[in-house]
Amino acid sequence: MKILDLINNRFSPTDFSNKQITEEEIKLLFEAAGKAASAFNEQPWRFVYALQQDKEEFKLLHECLVEGNRTWTGNVSALVITFISLTYARNGKENAVAKHDLGLAVGNLTMQASSMGLHVHQMAGILPEKIKEVLNVPDGFQPLTAIAIGYNNGEIKFKPRKSVEEIAFKGKWK
User: Fold this and answer.
1) The CATH classification of domain 20-150, taken from the options 3.40.109.10, 3.40.50.10490, 3.10.180.10, 3.20.20.80
2) Chain segment 30-65, per-residue pLDDT in tens
3) What CA–CA distances, in Å, run from 59 to 70, 142, 168?
4) How many CA atoms lie within 13 A of 65 on its CB side?
5) How far apart are CA 174 and CA 170, in angstroms?
6) How much is the pLDDT for 113?
7) At what angle do helices 98-115 and 23-34 cross, to 10 degrees?
8) The model's pTM
9) 162 DSSP 8-state letter
């Protein structure tokens, strides 16, 4: 047995081409995200996106990134801001696993993107207050990350990964 090529070959580039993606392609990525498991099937994730060809929308999202991320994301095919619902819709109680559920959804989106020849680079470097101000975020939702999506334009750079023995322990923590 071996790791799936889609997983094994995934990496997060910072050098993207300016090749565009279509509305149909980005919607397919979100459809894949929507198939993820979530506690009580709440699907607490939300996404605001802009395609490179939609200049004003793209600029608005681009300006919601910290400066370090703005330096390399100017020509990606799409930018996405991710959000979580802070509470369960079913009972109004805190959703303590919403970040986990968003992670599953973004994992699905990432694998779908990889299958389409696209690359995904997730970023924590966002400006949450600006996002809330300019993107019409309703109460009860928190901006969490940004995602750059596009075609790699540089060399493939795999970062070292920890061994299984460093991340998984049988029976108890070693």
Assistant:
1) 3.40.109.10
2) 999 999 999 999 999 999 999 999 999 999 999 999
3) 10, 21, 42
4) 22
5) 8
6) 98
7) 130
8) 0.95
9) -
